[in-house]
Specification:
single chain; alpha/beta; TIM Barrel; 5-stranded mixed beta sheet; 14 strands
């Protein structure tokens, strides 16, 4: 009897274990099969990349300025640019324009971040352009944020990009190609500290010999080319291949009735349609220009409505504008800033008086301004006296530590 009880007890234990295992097995099977959702009926889980993209788009919508800053930093990182080759500045400027018209003068405040970056000569400008374009198409455009950008490049010298929100500049970047024979800079601190001169040569398109002499100096100079001069297109092509910045030199009406600004000038009596038609025709003649400035134009640029029509059209064409400031009542620079058009204003005329001494003295004025403000915009012309002074003085000025840069580096 005792043995049977013992056997029954053992059988009971085995039966309990067996039933326990069976219950566990059924439980597992039940969960894996009965409650398992068939593949085709499972809710779709969006890939992480799509989710990340949506988050970035939302961030651009909520914080457009900060998001663009992060976006640009990401570009620099993707280009493997060392932090030692980047200097960031916060720029704050108050500008009163037009300075010569007290009744209509207006103070414009500029606050933007500037990236100064030294890059390798092996970096392709088109590659950088495509990265920026791709990012805009992927994040910024879908966000609906009113941000746009302008890019200006000078072969083997610099890549400049300007970011605007609505009509306000908030981020600017100047990427300099390292090397003495490129931008002329081997350190980004050297660029920031150097007194810089942007020299523009107006009235280009007639005597190529003067231009060839300046090119032989191998100093970055900007050339403003007439749309209708005999050698305009040939010089535009030649200068582009040689790695120089070119802009169109637009004839505009002067306050002096007897002064003819040149063929195809813009006049205040023209309506907007006529102005745009003239601009389209002239721009089509010069394939490599990246900006524009006014030839004469003391009357036209002081007409706020007319000059703003010109600036607005240039903005659509992604061309910057330099106000030659032939009259202190000019609205050109103000219109550009208010419309969100990359722009600049002339500081010094070298040769508005035909005198070797005067030209040399004006160069000294330019040097002093550059030493004080680290930047100065100078206009000169391809005339015998001017070329004589520039050929002698520019190399000497460079040896003194001054650096010549394209206009596109100074835009605001």
């Amino acid at each position: 009897m005792k043995k049977n009880r013992k056997k029954n007890k053992i059988y009971g234990i085995f039966l309990f274990i067996f039933l326990l295992i069976a219950v566990v097995f059924v439980f597992i099977y039940f969960n894996l099969n009965i409650f398992k959702i068939p593949k085709e009926k499972r809710p779709l889980v969006k890939p992480k990349t799509i989710s990340a993209n949506k988050l970035k788009i939302q961030y651009f919508k909520e914080h457009p300025v900060r998001a663009t800053d992060i976006f640009f930093n990401g570009i620099l990182k993707s280009l493997s640019i060392s932090r030692n080759n980047i200097i960031v500045q916060d720029i704050n400027i108050d500008i009163n324009i037009p300075a010569g018209d007290p009744e209509n003068v207006k103070e414009i405040r500029l606050d933007y971040k500037k990236y100064n970056v030294l890059i390798s000569k092996n970096l392709d400008f088109n590659f950088i352009k495509n990265i920026i374009k791709s990012g805009f198409e992927k994040y910024i455009i879908p966000s609906g944020t009113n941000i746009r950008y302008f890019i200006y490049t000078v072969k083997n010298n610099c890549f400049c990009v300007y970011f605007y929100r609505k009509k306000t500049l908030f981020l600017k970047a100047v990427l300099l190609v390292r090397g003495k024979n490129n931008s002329g800079f081997n350190s980004i601190q050297g660029y920031v500290d150097a007194p810089k001169i942007a020299l523009d040569i107006d009235d280009v398109g007639y005597d190529p010999s003067y231009i060839e002499k300046l090119v032989s100096l191998k100093i970055p100079v900007t050339f403003a080319i007439f749309p209708d001069a005999p050698f305009s297109k040939k010089l535009d092509i030649f200068l582009h291949k040689a790695g120089y910045e070119t802009i169109i030199h637009m004839p505009m009406e002067s306050i002096y009735p007897d002064l003819n600004p040149g063929d195809g000038s813009l006049y205040v009596t023209m309506n907007k349609k006529a102005i745009i038609k003239k601009l389209k025709k002239d721009l089509s003649k010069l394939p490599y220009i990246t900006g524009a400035n006014n030839h004469e134009g003391s009357l036209f640029t002081s007409d706020q409505k007319k000059i703003c029509e010109v600036v607005g059209f240039l903005k659509k064409k992604q061309l910057f504008f330099m106000d030659s400031l032939t009259d202190t009542k000019s609205f050109a620079y103000r219109c550009s800033l208010e419309l969100g058009e990359p722009s600049i204003q002339r500081d010094v005329f070298l040769d508005d008086k035909p005198s070797l001494k005067y030209i040399r003295d004006q160069l000294k004025v330019a040097e002093k301004l550059s030493a004080k403000f680290k930047r100065v915009v100078v206009i000169a012309h391809p005339r015998p006296d001017t070329i004589e002074v520039l050929i002698k003085k520019l190399p000497a000025i460079k040896k003194e530590g001054y650096r010549f840069v394209p206009l596109c580096e100074f835009l605001r």
